[in-house]
Amino acid sequence: MIKIYTKTGDKGQTSLYTGERLDKNHHIFECLGSIDELNAHLGLSREYCLSLGPSDEPKLAQLEEIQARLIDLGSHVATPRTSGEDQEKKIAHTAFDEANVANLEKWIDEMDLVLPQLKNFILPSGGLASANLHVARTVCRRAERNLIPLYKEEHIDAHAYKYVNRLSDYLFTLARYCAMKEGKPETIYKKAKQAAE
Questions:
Q1: Domain region containing 46
Q2: Which of 25, 127, 174, 194 is the most buried (most CB within 10 A)?
Q3: How far apart are CA 109 and CA 19, in angstroms?
Q4: Where does the Cobalamin adenosyltransferase-like domain lie (predicted)?
Q5: Which CATH number is 43's domain given?
């Protein structure tokens, strides 16, 4: 039987895919943690989206596809592109396909065709599926911020970073789509009233 625990991280370090051991609070693992957290939120969002009905099964398939691509993204992050010639095989194995970004853009455009035009800022709202997708969107933005140093140092490919940037746009759009499909109103942001002098 394979045990879930290895005890190799008991001293506060763990390994990248390249074999290099780093402290668990290293910036790379901050990125991986945010990506993992985002994936968990997408799993919950997908469960909430089950109530949308059979006509929206493609949206469930999209979320499942994204969850799988986030695993790929984690492998990409855990294999810095600057690892050296002795790691070329692992770097090639964890390449992140630019077509993933194009998929997100296509899905966003498809939803935009049926969504009401956005004329105001909205608060995270619109039912359980929508509200949870907004939570996922904020975690996605944190993952994007975490990735910026790795992107600037060329530890990750440009389209891997673009994917996370585009994913937050997709999640915002899907949140609005879910609210529309469930007939749940989106709460419009209202500026605070000025106190009377």
A1: 22-82+102-182
A2: 174
A3: 41
A4: 4-178
A5: 1.20.1200.10
